[in-house]
């Protein structure tokens, strides 16, 4: 189409005080706001902030996907369930990388054990998720028990806040304690403050 003809059709389609979006939606942007990119065709205020209803729906969807909350209205429960299963399998893989002996001790049951445990729990990160799971499965034996014991020795973790290292020097000093440097007193000589 040429310029004049196209402007004439555009003028017919534009309501008084509104602007065309020019995008795929083909909707009309109200004065002072703009059409959101979603299928709802909702309006976002001129400041760019998401309306309370949309924010609440998004929060409900995230809760359904990550912590086992009910599927919010307007979403296909089957598709939300598939996405939730995929996220839980992904979390199981991440925790298995952070806690390899724990995952190995569970064998082929690992994904099922983790998913059953994590289904109603939001993620706290792979280190904390694995730690909480290991504590819930205790008493652990073999390499999984040793892995948990090593983490407990090197870190302080109360189950609520992030783990805190017990101290870089203490772990290093324990590893060299049996060496001749420790026994001769040379370690203290090197670590004491100068001055």
UniProtKB/TrEMBL annotation:
Pfam families: SCO6045_C (PF26136). Residues 55-138 form the SCO6045-like C-terminal domain. Residues 1-48 are annotated as: Disordered. It comes from the Bacteria. Residues 1-13 have a biased composition (Basic and acidic residues). This is SCO6045-like C-terminal domain-containing protein. It comes from Asanoa ferruginea.
